Amino acid sequence: MASIERLKEGSRRILDECRKVIVGQQEVLEQLLIALFAQGHCLLVGVP
């Protein structure tokens, strides 16, 4: 259980920091973080 809590806290902190720069893309940020944790790839498409 401790490792799950550490992962949850770490992901929350990462999302909090990303939200300071990327505004209005909550779902995209969460999906990006899931892909990174799963050691996968993701393609971000949109207006810069």
Report on this model:
By secondary structure, the chain is mainly α. It contains two helices and no strands. The protein starts with a helix and ends in an 11-residue tail after the last helix. The protein has one domain (2-37). It has helices at 2-19, 26-37. The mean pLDDT is 91.
The total number of structural domains is: 1
Number of strands: 0
Q: Summarize the biggest pleated sheet.
A: none
Our Rg estimate from Cα atoms comes to 12 Å
Structural class comes to mainly alpha
Secondary-structure element pattern, one letter each: HH
Shape: flat
Give the strand content.
under 5%
Helicity, as a percent range: 55-70%
Entry keywords:
about 60% helix, 2 helices, mainly alpha, about 50 residues
How does the SSE layout of this entry go?
Blueprint: H1 2-19, H2 26-37
Structure summary:
This protein is an all-alpha fold. It is 62% helix and 0% strand. Helix 1 crosses helix 2.
